[in-house]
Amino acid sequence: MGWRSLDGERRVVTDAMRRGDHAIAQGRWSLALRHYGRANHFAVKVARAADGDQDRAVLGSVYYNLAELHTKDGGLAPAWLCALQACAVYAPLDPSGARPGDVASLVSSAGSSLAEERIGLCADARSRYVLLSAGVVRQFGPQALGANVADGALDGITNVFRVVDTIGEPAVRTFEELVRHGHRYTEADVDRTRRRVAQARELIGA
Questions:
Q1: Backbone phi, then psi, for 9, in 5-degree steps?
Q2: pTM of this structure
Q3: Lowest CB count within 10 Å: 39, 85, 109, 171, which one?
Q4: According to the model, what pLDDT value does residue 144 have?
Q5: What number is the average pLDDT over the span 168-182?
Q6: Distances in whole angstroms, Cα of residue 160 to Cα of each of 31, 97, 104, 125, 155
Q7: Which residue from 130, 155, 157 is spatially nearest to 145, judged by alpha carbons?
Q8: Is the pLDDT reported for residue 37 higher than 80?
């Protein structure tokens, strides 16, 4: 295939995600995985070449959706890894640094809409990572998060109980602060995040 411009590769990403979303709407998880796999291939290239926040945000969303698709398709380990990668991509975009106490001042300032969105994206991805971490430990044993994977466990935390306490609970508090001080998110986002953390606790018997 011939050379593509950066904008051409962005269009490939958009088209592959659109096709993947169509497959998701039909419940065709394996097909959706193929389309999102293609989106991921090009989104990584674009994010590296463009070095821009919006391209990184797109890559984060691709990894986030891949985590869900692998879960639907029965691939818990690759789902966990994609969730980890989503967190790694979103982290530099989150001005709060995943600290709930910083949310109020960030979202109350002028022109804070983008900051609010990205704080929420990061917290959402982190809560999904927590749930998948609990699932991985439940399936593969307590040492699963310490396995020799490419990027290591999120925040270097390999104890799943600490994952829930130090990553999951702050994600819940982040959404509580976003709802209290912002305009983009709702109680449904708080409930979804809280439910993931509760499910994680149930899986590990905490």
A1: -70, -35
A2: 0.92
A3: 109
A4: 85
A5: 96
A6: 32, 21, 29, 16, 12
A7: 157
A8: yes
Does pLDDT of 151 surpass 90?
no
Q: How far apart are CA 91 and CA 121, in angstroms?
A: 9
* DSSP letter for each residue of 120-182: HHHHHHHHHHHHHHHHHHHHH-TTGGGS--SS-SGGG---HHHHIIIIIHHHHHHHHHHHHH-
Q: Report how far residue 70's alpha carbon sits from residue 159's, in angstroms, rounded to the nearest whole number.
A: 23
In 3-state terms, what secondary structure has residue 97? coil
* 100 DSSP 8-state letter: G
Mean pLDDT of 146-168: 82
Query: Domains plus CATH for the chain?
Result: 1-75 (1.20.58), 94-206 (no CATH)
Contact present, 123 and 193 (Cβ < 8 Å): yes
Q: Tokens 């463009």 correspond to what residue?
A: 50
Average pLDDT value for residue range 138-158: 78
DSSP string, 8-50: HHHHHHHHHHHHHHHHHHTT-HHHHHHHHHHHHHHHHHHHHHH
pLDDT value at position 147? 63
- CA 199 to chain CA centroid, Å, is 17
Q: Cα–Cα distance between 171 and 56 in angstroms, integer?
A: 21
Q: Is the pLDDT score of 191 beyond 60? A: yes
